[in-house]
Write a structure and sequence with these properties.
With 318 residues, chain A is an all-alpha fold. Chain A is built from 16 helices and no strands. In chain A, helix 2 packs antiparallel against helix 3 and helix 11 packs across helix 13. With 486 residues, chain B is α+β, with helices and mostly antiparallel strands. In chain B, 50% of the residues lie in helices and 15% in strands. Chain B has 20 helices and 13 strands. In chain B, helix 19 packs antiparallel against helix 20. The chains are: A mainly alpha (318), B alpha+beta (486). Chains A and B meet through helix 15 of A and helix 4 and helix 19 of B.
């Protein structure tokens, strides 16, 4: 289909400027309007435009005092952002968001690397467990949250029962301000480590045996081969997975809202959760939109630097 | 199914059927002992005349209200997945037979229902015609014109059955659902409009496992310090039991049960007017005293999962016997006392706790009410459904089925069918405790737009204090946050 669409353009380009001059109408037709191609890409353009429109509408709402249930919204400029910046709760939400995302991604990358290496080893149990370990990825995040809420119940949850088997005292998990953030990070790590493992495993499979063989012949021990050969080669894969996960973790809503709703107090009140509560429970939609815009900016900055790092690492590997 | 208008006639028919029997005895007596048969006959004729006249006039009134005037219409009724919804859904075929109106129920889980409702109404979607709401969400929705005021429907004899009797609802429920809008803000007082009709309600009580308290010989506490002591005794006697189930989630619903009911008896007010200006009373000396007692009680009594506990956990605890006492909506105790339930007969009731120096207690109310979407394109049919769903007959039938509890109509509480049912031994002192509490039950929050935002902040502050933050400092910060939003 695409080769047909390109047909009118290709000859014009091939014949060069002289041909253009001799058949001006043809060249204009070929260069400027290819209706068939336009029709093909139009839905994609419209969808993209729709997304952008919604996004910019959201940004516009963050500049108003829109309140659900009140008929009129006034343009207030950056008042919502200024008001947010003056509250300690906002900065706490920024801290929670960044801590949650960075901790989750780093732990998932390390554990994912270990699991992928185990898979690549070809040990029988590792081969057998490969499909099983992907299970958390296919569970809906809200179900994961509810499951862990039950398991982390300080009185009746299985987690404290397991701790008691090894003689450890009960842990408060998601019910205490001091342990709640760590607990929700743990749930994220349990859910998404398989994602890292899958991508890194694919990277490890791409390293040919002759490279490892060359290292072995040169006297490289297993650890040195891993650190100096495999890890650098697989680093772009780790970073690609990190980009996806960082974006998701910075926006994480389901796991946090499903377990703690941002509490106790504000201890797990990430920006996405606080934005939802502000917009849909407190009904102050303009303020909620402002929180979403801040969240988007953090995601943008985080993704920008991770992509930069990925490019640098990829260049180095190549 | 009998039409509501026809029911009036039916009552009169029963009276007519009854009259001749009574008069027959009187007449025989007259014939035998006084010979005044003629007098008796004339009395019979007169009474029959008045009865028939009344019947006809009632029948005429019923004719002005035609239940089939919107026959063929289809409406959508949205509600939370709840026993109250089940009670209405079970009787829907009768309504459809009566009116010819098709009702499609849209029931959503509690967690998603409220967000869905906010979106549907604020976007002026006509998809829902009738929906279930509490008073508090309605405060935030009314200023946008999302709710249809109901006075004109109630006052229209062509739309409202003569026997409907709106004044039959408990006064505290009627007043809670009546307010006016002034400059986009909710205001109480004269001239208010009716925004929703109650079809069941909850008052906040202390309910407890009789078997557990009896076993450990623990008296029912009446104040937070007494409760704290009782909890320590219970924990010492059986560490596996959670002494008290209370909601603690980070949402105002955790405030509206135990916290605000007890706080009112300490003299705490969410909002006050200071020097002619609206202010919050949550950093007042009374509030500090209340929070110190309440936080201490929660630390000694509630489950370690307090911050994650919603009504599901509270009810689960009391029904399973893992929790000895609970302060929450009284009908949760009732529903678990119903014959056949594992906890049947084991849950008894008491008024909510009060301040140690208070002479009386306070109980907040939550009203499940039916409201009409102002964007509905089938308002007439919607009103007929609301009227039927909140009628005396449906309220009574739903109550006796053990579902529409507490019934919001005083007539239901005077009806022997209901009082006999609710006084069965398995319900323990439910009726007595209800009557005692209802005298002190009223809406404990100040009606206003922005209620949710302020009260959610209170719930967050409560979690902070229970987790160890200083009470006075936290309350000052909370009050500042609320003031910034006024």
């Amino acid at each position: 289909m695409s080769s047909q669409a390109l047909k009118p353009i290709v000859p014009v380009a091939a014949e060069g400027p002289g041909a253009c001059a001799s058949s001006g109408s043809d060249s204009l037709e070929g260069r400027s309007i290819d209706w068939f191609s336009l029709a093909i890409i139009l839905p994609a353009v419209l969808i993209l435009f729709g997304f952008l429109l919604l996004f910019f509408y959201g940004v516009y709402q963050s500049l108003t005092d829109l309140r659900l249930g009140r008929p009129i919204a006034k343009f207030v400029g950056f008042a919502n952002f200024i008001a947010l910046g003056r509250t300690a709760d906002f900065w706490n939400s920024v801290r929670v968001t960044v801590t949650y995302a960075l901790s989750s991604v780093v732990m998932e990358a390390l554990l994912g690397l270990a699991v992928a290496k185990l898979f690549a080893s070809g040990v029988f149990m590792a081969r057998a467990l490969r499909p099983v370990i992907l299970l958390p990825l296919v569970l809906p995040p809200m179900s994961v949250a509810l499951m862990w809420t039950t398991m982390m119940n300080p009185q009746s949850g299985i987690m404290n029962y397991l701790l008691s088997l090894i003689g450890l005292a009960p842990f408060a998990w998601i019910s205490d301000t001091r342990t709640a953030l760590l607990s929700v990070i743990m749930i994220d790590v349990w859910t998404y480590t398989p994602f890292f493992a899958l991508i890194i495993f694919a990277g490890l499979q791409g390293i040919t045996d002759d490279i490892r063989e060359a290292a072995r012949i040169n006297g490289g021990k297993a650890w040195a081969t891993f650190v100096n050969i495999e890890l650098p080669l697989v680093a772009p894969h780790i970073l690609i997975a990190a980009i996806f996960r960082l974006i998701e973790s910075l926006n994480q809503f389901d796991i946090i809202f499903g377990t703690t709703q941002g509490g106790p107090g504000n201890s797990t009140s990430a920006l996405s959760v606080q934005a939802y509560i502000t917009a849909f429970q407190n009904l102050t939609f303009g303020r909620g939109a402002a929180l979403m815009v801040v969240n988007w900016l953090i995601v943008l900055i985080g993704a920008f630097f991770t992509v930069k790092l990925w490019r640098a690492v990829r260049r180095r590997v190549q | 199914m009998v039409a509501l208008g026809e029911l009036g006639m039916e009552e009169w028919t029963q009276k007519l059927a009854k009259c001749p029997r009574e008069d027959y005895m009187g007449r025989s007596f007259a014939v035998l002992f006084t010979g005044a048969r003629r007098y008796a006959n004339s009395l019979l004729l007169t009474s029959a005349f008045f009865a028939v006249s009344a019947s006809l006039s009632n029948s005429a009134a019923a004719e002005t209200m035609n239940w089939r005037q919107f026959e063929g219409t289809s409406i959508t009724w949205a509600y939370d997945i709840h026993p109250y919804a089940d009670a209405l859904a079970a009787q829907l075929p009768e309504f459809e037979k009566l009116t010819g109106i098709k009702v499609t129920p849209e029931l959503y889980p509690d967690d998603s229902y409220w967000s869905k409702m906010t979106i549907q109404l604020t976007t002026k979607s006509p998809a829902w015609d009738v929906f279930g709401t509490g008073i508090q969400p309605a405060w935030d929705l009314a200023p946008s014109g999302a709710l249809e005021p109901l006075d004109k429907y109630l006052g229209d004899p062509k739309l409202t059955d003569a026997g409907y009797d709106f004044n039959d609802f408990f006064p505290s429920l009627r007043s809670a659902l009546t307010w006016k809008l002034e400059d986009g803000q909710v205001a109480t007082g004269d001239g208010g409009q009716i925004w929703a009709i109650p079809h069941a309600f909850e008052n906040i009580q202390l309910f407890y496992r009789k078997d557990i308290l009896d076993k450990y010989n623990i008296a029912v506490p009446t104040t937070p310090p007494e409760m704290a002591n009782a909890c320590e005794e219970l924990k010492a006697a059986d560490p596996s039991i959670t002494p008290l189930g209370v909601r603690g989630v980070r949402f105002w619903s955790s405030i509206h049960t135990a916290a605000v009911s007890i706080a009112r008896s300490y003299g705490v007010h969410d909002f006050v007017v200071k020097d002619g200006k609206l202010d919050t009373g949550l950093d007042s000396p009374e509030s500090i005293a209340f929070h110190k007692d309440y936080v201490d009680m929660i630390k000694k009594c509630a489950a370690p999962s307090f911050a994650n506990d919603n009504w599901y956990q509270v009810v689960d605890g009391i029904s399973s016997g893992r929790t000895a006492m609970a302060i929450d909506s009284n009908m949760f105790g009732f529903w678990n006392d119903v014959a056949g339930k594992p906890a049947s007969g084991k849950i008894a009731f008491a008024p909510p706790l009060r301040a140690p120096n208070a002479t009386s207690f306070d109980s907040n109310i939550w009203i499940w009410a039916l409201a009409m979407n102002a964007a509905s394109e089938k308002k007439g049919a919607a009103w007929l459904f609301m009227q039927w769903a909140t009628s005396k007959q449906v309220a009574l039938k739903g109550a006796v089925a053990g579902q529409l509890v507490n019934p919001p109509r005083t007539s239901t509480w005077q009806d022997e069918t209901w009082t006999k049912y609710a006084s069965q031994p398995e319900f323990n002192n439910f009726v007595d405790s209800f009557k005692k509490t209802q005298d002190h039950a009223a809406l404990a929050f100040t009606p206003r737009v922005g209620f949710g935002e302020a009260m959610n902040a209170w719930a967050v502050a409560m979690q902070k204090m229970v987790n160890g933050d200083d009470v006075e400092t936290t309350l000052r910060a909370l009050a500042e946050e609320i003031r910034a939003g006024l």
